[in-house]
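Protocol step 4 of 6: structure prediction from sequence.
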Amino acid sequence: MSKVLAVFGATGQQELSQEYAICAITRDLDSAKARQLKAKIEVVQGDVLDRKSLETALNGVYTIFAMTMPTLGANGFDVEYRSAKRIAGVAVEKGARNIIFSTLPAVREICGGKYTKVIYFDAKAKIEQYMRGLPIKSAFYCPGSFTKNFHQSLLAPRRAGDGTGYITCHVSPQTKFPLLAVVDDSGKFVGSILAEPDKYEGKKFCAATALYTLEEIAAIMSKVSGDHHLQADLP
């Protein structure tokens, strides 16, 4: 019988494919992405805010890949932290053997308290610290920047009045972005943990396929798109 790998966030950007019986956990079974997944793998309902639904979803699961979504608002840090604690607590209670968490660096700690509002990063760093103290084998996947952010976020190219395309960012030209195509590349890193969980217990993969400056990114996007006027707008 195959080991069951439960994946939180399977209807988001991160996907996994490995020699496991994969069970995708989603809050909304009727969403378009959930319906697409049902044609390939088992999809079950589980809400990180509802412990009872998690108890059902994680029953009999061997390994859990967990990611938490940031919550906007003044209490966003606490909501995300409690959600992850709920997932981990049920995992331990149900006898899961391993948990892999999608983490991020602790910005507040790295900068000595200078930046206090990077909640999306700091919450995950605290969750990682908490999971390391639980009676379950844990490993951590820390992805770099997603290449798709240059199509769908504030980093997406904009147009000047003369038609020139540009990417605006607050960092210096020398700053390098650790990039990966999250859907295509995540499994390469997480798959190593799944293959040898004992070897990678307590380890953290800082994952990227390569490092690029904004100027290099603009040049590549210009070449691929045929837009030879795309440039990086840097301070």
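Step 5 (inspection) to follow. The chain is about 35% helix and 25% strand.
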